[in-house]
Amino acid sequence: MSIENRLYAVRYRVDDKSHLTIRDQAVCQTCPTRACEWFCPADVYAWDEGEGRILVAYENCLECGTCRIACAEHNIEWTYPTGGYGIAYKFG
Amino acid sequence: MSAPRFDAIVVGAGPAGSVAAYTMASQGMRVALIERGEFPGAKNVFGGVLYRKPLEDILPEFWKEAPLERKVVEQRLWVLGKDSVVSLGYRSARFKEPPNAWTGQRAKFDAWLAGKAERAGAIPIYETVATSLIRDGDKVVGVQTDREEGDLYASVVIIADGVNSLLAKSLGVHREWKPDQVSLAVKEVLALPKDVIQERFGVEEGEGVTIELIGETCGMAGLGFLYTNQDTLSIGVGVMVSDLQKKKVKPYQVLDSIKQHPEIQRLIAGGETKEYAAHLIPEGGFDAMPPLSGDGWMICGDAAQMVNAAHREGTDLAMLSGRLAGETAVACHATGDWSAGGLGAYTQAVKESIIHRDLKKYRGLHSLLSGPQAELLFGALPQALNDAAYEMLSVDGESKRDKQKRAAALLREAAGGTAGLIGIGWRGWRAMNG
Predict the structure, then answer these.
(1) Under DSSP, is residue B286 helix (H, G, I), strand (E, B) or coil?
(2) What are residue B84's phi and psi, to 5 degrees?
(3) Range of the domain at A40
């Protein structure tokens, strides 16, 4: 099952500003692993070769917190979306 | 206008927070219950199994009104090989009356539990993020929220904001969890008709089965699960974040690997994915627990690493900690002593409870699972056990003595020799009996 189909089943109320911030894109440019492209369960992080930066699809974030802990460079500023916004599970 | 003042502020309307709020409000305290989700439960995920005892102590016969799925009458443990399974299970009529546990769904259950706290008098402040603690010197005296003029003050703040607990971090009592102190669980809810579920799992109306899964986690330390709900199945897998960092396997690919196992496929076939979820599980165990109380604050549940990973218990420990924190607050409210000394009664109560006792027993598990032997325990050994079972159970003209030798050799080879096998057995025993 593709991640797109999985995320399609998730209910969000999307905040108009990102709660996830890359602290310093220069760190990502030289990051040897870019493990964020793998460990995120919603594929929020993707390396854009053309622009030379990590793109952050915060709208798809499941708010698990993995990236905050797993980014070896501690380069992801992780906060909560505004109260009432973000993921709203139907089952949980 | 002066900022609102409460006896207690509870941050997080999950099982720990709602039980704490209920305990205090029902004793007449002025309680604010803050929740960042659209409703209590909106941000919460678990496997999930809910046990009777911890909540029954607070809300007798709660199951007659709580939104629960199926009472668990059978628990299975499946050790998965590539295309086979070694199965162990226990089924008993004694699990029926009274039930020992139910399957459940957090979005429904947590909303119900928070409703109990509201009806007891707790003031709901939902769709609101508690962004930081307000201090007066070393003392916590309130919280700032993301609402306009959103500062709230109280004699005590109960921090029950879950595994990510940005508040506990801002308090400085613990730094960030290490990648091997948390597991990432991904889960899908699959819709199937009731009668299909009952037929496939061999249960009657209202009865359910839980299956824990070991193996086929792409060599990562982790466990899978498959639980029956009324007209859905919950299937998921949790793997250690430190393994995810290294393996270059996406979390949902681990879930796919379990879903595609032929014996799992048989049980979930035709199930339509109604939801996909991801959540961290604090699995650092006893040694990862932060200080639990101080001047004007207490920490409960996942925010304090109160999870017994070996027994998939977390919700029940969260509710118990919420009760102990609530009871401590009620006592402090009577004396007016909200100091670190007064609230230290909560830390003491947790120490005397099964939270401490059980986490202490499994204290060594964390280092075993985060160590170099994880790949063996969750990869090679489950497969070797399946191969050994195949050897023992297939009749092919070979003598039983030779077969037994071959089966034992398979396990020995997987563990890297006799010493390896004994070593891992010994370490496993020690890890679970610390």
Answers:
(1) helix
(2) -150, 175
(3) 3-81
- Nearest-angstrom CA–CA distance, B31 and B70: 33
Give the minimum alpha-carbon distance from B400 to chain A in angstroms, rounded to a whole number: 44
Q: pLDDT truncated to tens, each residue of chain B (434 aa)? A: 567 799 999 999 999 999 999 999 999 999 999 999 999 999 999 998 999 998 999 999 999 999 999 999 999 999 999 999 999 999 999 998 889 999 999 999 999 999 999 999 999 999 999 999 999 999 999 999 999 999 999 999 999 999 999 999 988 887 799 999 999 999 999 999 999 999 999 999 999 999 999 999 988 888 999 999 999 999 999 999 999 999 999 999 999 999 999 999 999 999 999 999 999 999 999 999 999 999 999 999 999 999 998 888 999 999 999 999 999 999 999 999 999 999 999 999 999 999 999 999 988 888 888 877 888 888 889 999 999 999 999 998 999 899 999 999 998 888 888 888 788 788 888 877 77
pTM of the model: 0.95
Chain A residues close to B176, C-beta within 8 Å: 68-69
Q: Is residue A17 part of a domain?
A: yes
Let me know if residue A55 belongs to a domain: yes
Cβ of A38 within 8 Å of Cβ of B107? The answer is no
| Chain B residues close to A3, C-beta within 8 Å | 250, 252
Residue B280 and residue A84: Cβ atoms within 8 Å? no
Among the listed residues B114, B74, B106, the one whose alpha carbon sits nearest the alpha carbon of residue B90? B74
Are the Cβ atoms of B38 and A13 closer than 8 angstroms? yes
B 119-148 → A contacts, CB under 8 A: 126-129, 145-147
State whether B129 and A83 contact (CB < 8 Å): yes
Residue from the list B45, B251, B280 with its beta carbon closest to the beta carbon of A89: B45
> Is residue B273 packed enough to be buried (19+ CB in 10 Å), middle (13-18) or exposed (0-12)?
middle
Residue appearing with tokens 């990102």: A18
Residue A86 domain-assigned (yes or no) = no
Q: Which residues are within 8 A (CB) of B83 and not within 5 positions of it... i.e. 6 or more apart?
A: B261, B262
> Cβ A64–B107 below 8 Å, yes or no?
no
Q: The CATH number of the domain where A11 resides is what?
A: 3.30.70.20
**Token pair recorded at residue B377:** 């325990």
DSSP-H helix ranges across B88-225: 106-119, 166-171, 194-201
CATH architecture of B179-282: 2-Layer Sandwich (3.30)
- How many structural domains compose chain A? 1
- Tell me which residues of chain A have a C-beta less than 8 Å from any C-beta of chain B: 1, 3, 5-7, 9-10, 13, 33, 35, 38-43, 62-66, 68-70, 72, 78-80, 82-84, 86-92
- Residue ranges covered by each domain of chain B: 5-67+105-177+287-361, 179-282, 366-431
B249 to A13: CB separation less than 8 angstroms, yes or no = no
- What CATH class does B5-67+105-177+287-361 carry? alpha beta
Place of tokens 């032929």: B262
Residue A90: inside a domain, yes or no? Answer: no
